[in-house]
Design a protein that fits this description.
112 residues; alpha+beta; two-stranded antiparallel ribbon; 2 helices; 31% strand; elongated
């Protein structure tokens, strides 16, 4: 399936028997065997700040909360792209360990 199904226009009559076009009709029904999954997306924060593990040390970190699960990774700031890749890999690994589909995560450089 390629995306949400749009309402299908249909002709109906009102109480005066005037023909009107309605676009509020239900979308077509799914065929047998088809399923429509809605996948929530979660934005992963990518920021700088104080370390949780070593207070007073400046780090880059990624953080995302999914229901009751918090995924968090930090690294001492170095080369930005190297730090980003390291943190992203850590978040994806944590997501897998918690049974979270990595495709539901939206990373900073993936959208900006």
């Amino acid at each position: 399936m390629t995306g949400p199904r749009a309402p299908v226009p249909r002709l109906t009559t009102d109480h005066n028997s005037d023909i009107i076009k309605s676009t509020t009709a239900d979308p077509p029904r799914l065929k047998a065997g088809e399923s429509e999954e809605i996948m929530n997306k979660y934005t992963v924060e990518y920021k700088s700040g104080d370390s949780r593990m070593n207070p007073g040390v400046s780090v880059d970190y990624m953080l995302v909360k999914i229901d009751d699960v918090e995924l968090y990774a930090e690294a001492i700031a170095q080369d930005e792209s190297a730090t980003y890749d390291e943190l992203k890999a850590s978040i994806i690994e944590q997501a897998r360990k918690h049974g979270i589909d990595a495709d539901t995560l939206i990373f900073w450089y993936d959208v900006n």
